[in-house]
Amino acid sequence: MVLGREALRQLLAQEPPLVKGLVNLEEQLQPQGIDLTVRSVSRFGAAGQLGQSNEDRLLPPLVPLAPGENGYWNLGLGPYMITYNEEVRIPGHLMALGRPRSSMLRCGATLHTAVWDAGYYGRSQSLLVVHHPSGFRLAKDARVMQLVFLALTEELAQGYSGAFQGENL
User: Fold this and answer.
1) 116 partner at 20 to 30 Å CA-CA among 42, 122, 157, 165?
2) Pick from 97, 128, 129, 101: nearest CA to 114
3) Residue span of the structural domain in which 69 resides
4) Nearest-angstrom CA–CA distance, 157 and 44
5) 163 within domain boundaries
């Protein structure tokens, strides 16, 4: 079951809130999700690596990009890592899926995210890929992704406890 606006509003009002640090609650609260906004953009500084175990994982270094004129990043073709403004705290009875806003797709850019597990908390990141040959302009605090929350059939006794727990806080 996907959570609607009023259920999300109630979870935003509780302590701790489902999402903290919203730029504009009324703009970001959608009929079936919450829009997340851009805090920063980075490019990849080297290659990464995944092996058979987490010990073989090597994340590439990120090189922060400063926004230019009027708070916009002028992004060329290729991959970027974005960090969101909002801190998300997913309770044990929910999970979430992130989807790019349709306006991003209509500009020739998209976002890729993984499953947002029950029990996760942090200020997450997503892969932004610019496909349009002329590039893409992105403003700081722009709404780029809708996080859609789904109820689990049972509350998890032990939720997410991986390496990205509490990231970017």
Assistant:
1) 42
2) 97
3) 5-45+60-151
4) 36
5) no
pTM given for the model? 0.94
Domain assignment present for residue 126? The answer is yes
Within 13 Å of residue 169, how many CA atoms lie on the same side as its CB? 11
Radius of gyration of the chain (CA): 16
CA distance between the termini of the chain: 30
| CB neighbour list of residue 78: distance below 8 Å, 6 or more residues apart | 43, 129, 130
What mean pLDDT is predicted for residues 31-45? Answer: 98
Question: What CATH number should be reported for the domain holding residue 134?
Answer: 2.70.40.10
Whether residue 20 has pLDDT greater than 90: yes
Positive or negative CA dihedral for 112, 34, 23, 92?
Answer: negative
Is residue 39 assigned to a domain? Answer: yes
Q: What is the pLDDT of residues 107-143, one digit of tens each?
A: 999 999 999 999 999 999 999 999 999 999 999 999 9
Q: How many residues does the chain have?
A: 169
| pLDDT, tens digit (0-9, with 9 covering 90-100), for 74-116 | 999 999 999 999 999 999 999 999 999 999 999 999 999 999 9
Q: Is residue 164 part of a domain?
A: no
Q: In Å, how far are 7, 105, 156 from 90, measured between CA atoms?
A: 14, 27, 11
